[in-house]
């Protein structure tokens, strides 16, 4: 086995991005992810890239818009309040069909909240991402290796769909350390697109990146085009993983760090005779509706464990459509379940 | 077009004025008598004269300049309200060889986008800004801007702008003048031919600054908005001379 490197999620994000071909980074410091811009400011000059600290998250996302308009692999990273500030820019990216990778190391909210681990930006990422019709392809890693891998792959996915792609981490994933297998560097050159601006035109027709569609029919057409891409993403990018009992009575649905906690919780519950299985979505949008629906016909109950007041649980309920009861166990504001607590909830279902 | 040329030739006439090569020969969606089209044209003439049409990138903003990319035969991007300097920064950092310019109104640049403006200038970002100061929000039909003169009645200062309630007109050139990243900074006016010629000279210097990699350049152009000032175009020109220039004196403030 080749060598692995011990790193935290922030560093894995930076290294995964650089290996994935990212050469442009615009961002603004915010805990718990400031080590990502710090790492990028160190590493990008080494590989001929550009790091720039923006004056705000608003400026950062719009700098990304400019770089993305040139077909560059570009990233910004932030945490919850900063992502709120980026919403208009993200919506412009939907409208102008621009690829960008946006990492949100989610912290407790609302407001300034705190810097502890939370999953309360599920809606912000999967439903929000700004005004208008448009949704954000969203991945949720549960390990540092997966933080690395998903960041690495997201640049090409963003380009494939000409759309922003977001990753949801949290304060634990940002700072927890695990060994990571690094991957072969991907192409970092500007993408050869027929829509990118800049460079020497040499008489080629002008390209214009815009999200203004004054004619309602033209805007409707754009929105249909975006949703056709989401439909393709649903076929080609839906990801999830399962573990636990083969013939479960209970299906546990959790993502990210909550799924990691549930893994141990399930082991404890199994020792006490509870037959449960964990299904963890790796892509939150597109959502793994089909496997959850299938299990809902076989299990007695579904338990959703989530670090929020209940956002992800709504997608599970939509997938289940009343086929079985869906129970919810949530902590919020930075409070995190213990595995014992999850095992306890499972034992009482 | 060709027909006209032939006819003119037959008549022994010489063509002395036409659409600049880097402009699209399409009607502009702007009010009659407005000075926006003059500023558009100045940008286009300069791009042609400097021979940079193949590498110039126009970042349009939100305001009456929102359709600018339709009028220019140049690569470009349309930026969110106030964010054109940030978008231009993104493009310039990817393509330092491109000549990247933004075209922004005073609501866009001096209100919602003031932070982006000042920080692009502070960084000495190698971009050029054509800044149209008409002292009002034109696109949204005449609300007060930070540049609106005291006493001016707009739809949101119906009693006339009062310093007591809304402070004083914002002088962007004065704000930027002290920043070492600024390589060229001037305020000009578009209300009469002699001023338009001056404005063109300054704007051309601003573009040249970027070509030479000297840093941030901005030319503010005092403009009219006859529609929202509720004036005939000629009256609006007079207002610039009598009221606006005294508040916003013309000049080249930085030239490196
Ligand atoms: C975030 C956001 N806020 C407000 C608006 C509405 N809006 C469109 S144009 C404009 C003002 C433009 O005025 P100015 O920049 O002075 O340009 P002008 O139209 O006078 O040329 C405003 C407020 C918007 N499009 N986006
Ligand atoms: S609204 Fe004012 S600034 Fe806009 S095009 Fe009309 S006259 Fe010009």
Describe this entry's structure for a reader:
The complex is a heterodimer of chains A (349) and B (256). With 349 residues, chain A is α/β, with parallel strands linked by helices. Chain A has two domains: 232 residues, Thiamin diphosphate (ThDP)-binding fold, Pyr/PP domains (Rossmann fold), CATH 3.40.50.970; 109 residues, Rossmann fold. Chain A has 13 helices and 15 strands. In chain A, the strands form three sheets. Chain A has a seven-stranded mixed β-sheet with strand order 3-2-4-5-7-6-13, with helices on both faces. In chain A, helix 1 runs parallel beside helix 2 and helix 10 crosses helix 13. The longest helix of chain A is centred in the middle third of the chain and has 21 residues. Chain A is globular, with a radius of gyration of 20 Å. The mean pLDDT of chain A is 97. The relative contact order of chain B is 0.14. Chain B has a single domain, classed as 3-Layer(aba) Sandwich (Rossmann fold), CATH 3.40.50.970. Chain B is an alpha/beta fold and 256 residues long. The structure holds thiamine diphosphate (TPP) and iron/sulfur cluster. The site of thiamine diphosphate (TPP) has 18 residues of chain B, from helix 5.
Any low-confidence stretches of chain B, pLDDT <50, length ≥5? Answer: none
Which outline of chain B best applies?
globular
| Number of helices, where a helix is a run of at least 4 consecutive DSSP H or I residues of chain B | 11
CATH topology of the largest domain in chain A: Rossmann fold
Across the major sheet of chain A, the strand order is 3-2-4-5-7-6-13
What is the oligomer described by this structure? heterodimer
* CA(first)-CA(last) distance of chain B: 42 Å
The assigned CATH architecture of the largest domain in chain A is 3-Layer(aba) Sandwich
What's the CATH class of the largest domain in chain A, please? Alpha Beta
> How many alpha or pi helices of chain A?
13
* The CATH architecture of chain B: 3-Layer(aba) Sandwich
By DSSP, the count of extended strands of chain B is 7
Identify the bound ligands.
thiamine diphosphate, iron/sulfur cluster
What would you give as the CATH superfamily of chain B?
Thiamin diphosphate (ThDP)-binding fold, Pyr/PP domains
Percent of residues of chain A in beta strands? 15-25%
Largest sheet of chain B: 7 strands, mixed
Total discrete domains of chain A: 2
Work out the radius of gyration of chain B. Answer: 18 Å
Mean of the pLDDT scores of chain A?
Answer: 97
